[in-house]
Design brief:
The two termini are about 20 Å apart. The protein is built from ten helices and no strands. The relative contact order is 0.18. With about 250 residues, it is an all-alpha fold.
C-alpha cells in the first residue's frame, strides 16, 4: 500500500537473477525446503491480505464522509482479491490455504490488537505505515524467489490506492490542525517498532522462512544482507513519514 513515488526496494536495482531466482516453480520446488518456505511465505501473505481487507472494512465505518467510506470499501475489495489469488495459488501447489495461514494468524492478530487505532487518522497512518513495512519486507524476499512465485508476490503487493489516499488525508488534517502532527508522528514510530518486531518473530518461528533469509535456500541472502535489508526498510519508512508530513 505504499505510494509509488516513495517505495524503494532492493528489486529496483537488483542484478540479473541467479540460482533459484532464475528458475521457474517446477524446477525450484524440487527442493522440499524451498517448497516449504514458499508455502509459509504465501500463507503469511494470504493472511495479511485477509486481515487488511477486514481492517479497511472496519476503517470505512469511521470514515467522516460518504466519499471516504466508498474509497475505503473499494480498497478493501482489492485486498480481498489479492487474498483470493494467493489462496488459489496455494491450492494449485497442493497446499491447503487455511492450514498455510494458520501459523501466522496469532502473530498478526496480536499485532493488530496491540496497535488498534483510536481514531480515523490513526487508522490511516497504521494502514500506510504498517502495510508498507510489510510490503517492503515481502518485496525484498521476492527478489530471491523463483520466477513464477515472484511474479505473484509482486502482483499482490501492488498499491491499492490507500497510500496516496492516506497521504492526502493526513496532510490535510495536519494543515488544518498542526498539533495533530506530533501525536501521529509518535503513533507512526510505535507502529514501526511493532511491525519490525512482529516480522522478526514470524521469521524466527518458521524454520523454512528463516533458512530462506539467511541463505540456506534462496540465492543471495546472508546474515549481513538481512541487516542491510532491515536498514533499507527503515530508510523507506523515513521517506514515507516525510510524505505524510511527519517527523520520523
Amino acid at each position: 500500500m505504499e505510494t509509488p513515488d516513495t517505495a524503494k526496494t532492493a528489486t529496483d536495482e537488483a542484478p540479473a537473477p541467479t540460482g533459484i531466482a532464475a528458475q521457474d516453480w517446477e524446477t525450484a520446488a524440487a527442493d522440499p525446503k524451498y517448497r516449504a518456505a514458499v508455502v509459509d511465505l504465501l500463507g503469511a501473505l494470504a493472511y495479511g491480505e485477509l486481515a487488511a481487507f477486514e481492517r479497511l472494512a472496519e476503517d470505512a465505518k469511521l470514515a467522516p464522509t460518504l466519499g471516504d467510506k466508498a474509497a475505503l470499501a473499494k480498497m478493501a475489495s482489492a485486498e480481498f482479491h489479492h487474498f483470493e489469488r494467493l489462496a488459489d495459488r496455494l491450492t494449485a501447489i497442493d497446499a491447503d490455504p487455511t492450514a498455510s495461514m494458520d501459523p501466522f494468524a496469532q502473530a498478526l492478530d496480536d499485532f493488530h490488537r496491540q496497535t488498534a487505532p483510536s481514531d480515523w487518522l490513526e487508522g490511516l497512518v497504521k494502514a500506510y505505515v504498517g502495510d508498507s513495512i510489510a510490503s517492503d519486507f515481502y518485496r525484498e524476499v521476492a527478489a530471491r524467489l523463483d520466477t513464477d512465485t515472484r511474479g505473484l508476490v509482486l502482483a499482490v503487493l501492488d498499491d491499492t490506492g490507500h497510500g496516496n489516499f492516506a497521504v492526502e488525508k493526513v496532510r490535510a488534517a495536519i494543515e488544518a490542525e498542526p498539533r495533530v502532527g506530533g501525536r501521529l508522528a509518535l503513533w507512526a514510530r510505535r507502529l514501526m517498532g511493532e511491525a519490525l518486531s512482529q516480522a522478526q518473530r514470524v521469521v524466527a518461528d518458521r524454520d523454512a522462512l528463516s533458512t530462506m533469509l539467511v541463505g540456506g535456500v534462496a540465492d543471495g541472502f546472508d546474515l549481513a544482507e538481512v541487516g542491510r535489508m532491515f536498514s533499507r526498510i527503515t530508510e523507506a519508512h523515513t521517506k514515507r513519514m516525510a510524505a505524510l508530513g511527519l517527523a520520523a
